[in-house]
């Protein structure tokens, strides 16, 4: 049986410093240098970094019972509670089964019309900045638009701009603090009044205070047509409903998982489109045909294939969730390769999406690689994870982003503002930009 090679690190810290400094690039680089899988150490704790899609698919799809999610997810319960992202085994199965019907592709197609309505407000704000001769930070535009969409679709909430900004900052703060805790070489116990701990507890209190009344309203009047009311009506096999706390935790989870990831991916889309005015023109022409016939409906999305390919390629080159953490319970074997038990695993989606399976153009943005006759390396593509823990909101996110791309290009031409350029990646919980994306917009 073949053993996975081990990378040599510092005699005491192992690779703790490198991983803490760059949790995105370090696992990707170290795994790709060793053929797709490598063992390394963080202090006394053994890790595996993986970019080999065969090993990754085995862990996520073929033998998931041996690979529960790692401590990185467990710590998320500090702020977002015990929802789908942070629970395992029977509790996870019950929740997933109750929630799945709400997130199937057919009902989620309604998100297309919700996104179009939210865009009307965002467009007016963009035009106001244009009239004042200002460049527009598309990071802020995408964040507010993504948050507006999920608030309206999930719980029929329509907030003012300042409220959206405040709520978005809360969600981002929770993710940032969890990232700092997960990547710290030593994390203080939560009862200790350390600065990061105080912020974590404060963020949780504010999220609970904001969303608690919304959840209680849906439980008292579950006849509404939004997604949260549908979750309030959901029943398990014994006829039981979500408790108030369960529904609140799932709501926080959906916001945390669905808002920042979408906004992050769309910020990178804006960067790529600003470099490609010809692609923007193609998207605008496609949108003219889709939006010029009738009101946006669930069938509109079928008329936007190029926008769909742009989204897929952005998710390949800039996967918001760049690492998937798992823990091996027992020894395992994959095609003669031994995976030891008791090891934390980082599946580097970032490294896999830019690896040898994509050929010499792996680092290039090419939406047409997703044309049917190009046969992209789909086994090496998992921006929403894979297997039973595939993101429940996958269809929601794809419809939303496809519409956002089409709507923006339908109304505006995009180009970089004077002195602006593509930002660098800043690995938070998501692969965020390290600053604004300043674009000059021109009406079509």
Write the layout of secondary structure elements.
Elements: E1 2-3, H1 16-21, H2 25-33, E2 37-42, E3 45-50, H3 53-62, H4 71-74, H5 77-80, H6 89-99, H7 105-108, H8 111-131, E4 136-137, H9 138-155, H10 161-183, H11 195-220, H12 227-233, H13 244-274, H14 277-291, H15 305-317, E5 323-327, E6 332-334, E7 337-339, E8 344-348, H16 349-353, H17 394-411, E9 412-416, E10 425-427, E11 431-433, E12 438-443
Parallel strand pairs: 1-7, 3-8
Antiparallel strand pairs: 2-3, 4-12, 5-8, 6-7, 9-12, 10-11
Describe the structure.
α8 packs antiparallel against α9, α10 packs across α11 and α14 packs across α17. This protein has a four-stranded mixed sheet. It is globular, with a radius of gyration of 22 Å. A hairpin with a 2-residue loop joins β6 and β7. The longest helix has 31 residues. It has a domain of 114 residues: 2-Layer Sandwich (Uridine Diphospho-n-acetylenolpyruvylglucosamine Reductase, domain 2), CATH 3.30.43. The chain contains 17 helices and twelve strands. It has 444 residues and is an alpha+beta fold. It is 51% helix and 11% strand.
